Amino acid sequence: RATQYTCMLLSYLIERKAEKEKLVMKLKQLESSMSSGRKMFRLGNMVHALVAARRTTQLPDVVPRFCLTASNLTRALYFVCDTVLWLRSVGLQPDIDKPKWRNWATKCYYFSLLMNLARDWYEISWRLEQVVQEEKTKENFFWDKCNQELNSVKCESLHGFLLLLFQILKRHPPLLLDLVKNLCDLSGPLDTLGIYKTNPGVIGFCGVLSSLVGILTLVSPHLKLKQ
């Protein structure tokens, strides 16, 4: 995935430079190959998404339970569409309507990301509320090093809200990384669905950043936001 989006970003950056046509063509071919390979590697991921959905139905908190279950179910539908597109790309089902299935896949992926972002915002708002309550009662704060700074925060002002938000994300790296990854992943569906048009450079950069976050959470599992 990181290779695919790196090729997209590089080909966008150098496509207008003279005497780079062959390099751009090679990068685009590699990007296409990586995309096809990823579709093959994702075969069977629908089962994983359904298992994850079943697991998240057991969560005690209703909001994360709803958001994550809906996210996993729509992600499973995305993998179904993705498998159909793969069958067409390898020639097993050449009569498949590619634009229609691609549109369905993008919509499922888009809704899944929205549910993930809703869950992230719930986590943030819950921690915001806790800090505000602790300020009001003058009791224990989350961060001993930031007591003086937090005492000066007034959530009624935008500056105070942003400062408090920064402190929360700073003190909860898994939440920050999950938020960054979901926001970066959103660029592709927004462009494909025509909601917010960008360019391959932006999509490539966001894809690379999202992929690096994913690699980081694999290398260091404690940085992955727990369900």
UniProtKB/TrEMBL annotation:
Predominant location of this chain?
Answer: membrane
For whether the record's keyword set contains Transmembrane, the answer is yes
Q: Name one GO biological process term.
A: peroxisome fission
Write out the annotated subcellular location: Peroxisome membrane
Protein's UniProt keywords contain Glycosyltransferase? no
Q: Which residues cross the membrane?
A: 201-219
Q: Name one GO cellular component term.
A: peroxisomal membrane
Q: Which UniProt keywords apply?
A: Membrane, Peroxisome, Peroxisome biogenesis, Transmembrane, Transmembrane helix
Please report the name of this protein according to its UniProt entry.
Peroxisomal membrane protein 11A
